[in-house]
Amino acid sequence: MATPRTTPSRPDALTLEVVELIGSVVARYHEEYEEAAAGHALTGAQARLLSLLCLEPLPMRRLAQRLKCEPSNVTGIVDRLESRGLVERRPDPADRRVKLAAATPEGRQVARNMQNSLRFAREPLAGLSEEERVALRDALRRMLSAD
Predict the structure, then answer these.
(1) pLDDT digit string (tens) for 66-82?
(2) In b/e form, how buried is each residue of 65-89, taking b as 16+ CB within 10 angstroms?
(3) CATH of 36-116, one of 3.40.630.190, 1.10.287.40, 1.10.10.10, 1.10.150.120
(4) Model confidence, pTM
């Protein structure tokens, strides 16, 4: 008879160190992301929404889910980006009652410029060998798929 796997009540020192390092990486990434957004006169939320829309047009409700915020907040963000010509609303071809938000060519260019200005991820990773980057990528994928 198999016994259930038990989780240790206290993580070991190595696990705690890794968790702390991941937290530091996330904090540094967010700091630089906010700076890059500000360099393009965007808030962090506007930049994240624009980045999502560069992948594919999305309805407001789905944007709100991905950004983990209220749909009314997304409407305001889209309004501000639309007034700058970075985003447009268009009917959903599958259901014309639904409006999709989509990045304009100018919006995609701003998002690309912002992404290219992020040094934090690029510079430290350049110091790792391809084998180390592959191992890091694979470990991160395993961590994310464990949910």
Answers:
(1) 999 998 899 999 999 99
(2) eebeeeeeebeebbebbeebebbbe
(3) 1.10.10.10
(4) 0.76
